[in-house]
UniProtKB/TrEMBL annotation:
Lineage of origin: Bacteria, Pseudomonadati, Pseudomonadota, Alphaproteobacteria, Hyphomicrobiales
Domain GST N-terminal: from-to ranges: 1-79
Alphabetical list of Pfam families matching this protein: GST_C, GST_N_3
Name of the molecule in the record: Glutathione S-transferase
Quaternary context: Homodimer.
Gene3D superfamilies listed in its UniProt record: 1.20.1050.10, Glutaredoxin
UniProt source species: Variibacter gotjawalensis
Stored CDD domains: GST_C_family, GST_N_family
Any one Gene Ontology molecular-function term assigned to this protein's record: glutathione transferase activity
Lineage: superkingdom: Bacteria
């Protein structure tokens, strides 16, 4: 069986888990506390970041972008309309652009600051960066999310999905990033009805159910987190 080394509230891990779920791939999940810098994990990925995918006897595949391309090459090509990359070259560019937008830009400006301050720092040892949250960092992330949600509103108002007329990696990346922020109750849904409607479609998918069942020790989920109808 294939193995995914992940951390439950790592948005990049969630992106890959959603992709594996959409492709119907059976995978053994191994929780990796990446801040421990475990030697065996660093051998697989010297960067020390999650996720890392090991496909049966194959070599370790590190990072969300590389794993997404690997899954497309090994599974997506056989799945026609269920493929998470389009056939059209222009659409593939747009899917990759938006996937990068959410996995890189949204992550750096919104998801990573919030999940680090409110979840990771609670469980990390002090020498690894643990401690009380930095409210200045969280305020900046709360401001940044409005810019991203405004952009998403424009996207879903002009397209059926984020990148084109069907669900793709771009939607999974955005939903994975938003999911951890939503768990923390940090998404101003009342200001973004179009994005709220799109996200409701995403979290209603079977691949999303395992994410909605997870909880962080000492950090309760927002009241509507697991409610498919908000």
């Amino acid at each position: 069986m294939s193995t995914l080394y992940h951390y439950p509230f790592c948005p990049h891990s969630r992106f890959v888990r959603l992709a594996l779920g959409e492709y119907g791939a059976l995978v053994d999940l191994v929780e990796e506390r990446f801040w421990d810098r475990r030697e065996e994990f660093l051998i697989m990925n010297p960067a020390g970041t999650t996720p890392v995918f090991v496909d049966q006897a194959g070599p370790p595949v590190p990072g969300p972008a590389i794993i997404a391309e690997y899954l497309d090459e090994t599974r997506g090509l056989l799945l026609a309309e269920r493929r998470l990359l389009a056939e059209d070259p222009a659409e593939r560019v747009e899917i990759r652009r938006l996937t990068s937008w959410f996995n890189d830009k949204f992550y750096a400006e919104v998801a990573e600051p919030l999940v680090s301050e409110k979840i990771y720092r609670r469980v990390m040892p002090k020498e690894a960066g643990g401690g009380p949250p930095d409210t200045t960092v969280m305020r900046a992330a709360r401001s940044n999310i409005r810019y991203h949600l405004a952009y998403m509103t424009w996207l879903v108002s002009s397209r059926d999905w984020l990148a084109c007329d069907r669900m793709t990696y771009a939607d999974l990346a955005a939903a994975a990033q938003l999911s951890v922020v939503d768990y923390l109750g940090e998404v101003p849904w009342n200001e973004n009805e179009a994005v709220k409607h799109w996200y409701a479609k995403m979290k209603s998918r079977p691949s999303f159910r395992p994410l909605l069942a997870e909880t962080a020790l000492g950090v309760p989920a927002s009241e509507h987190y697991a409610d498919l109808d908000f």
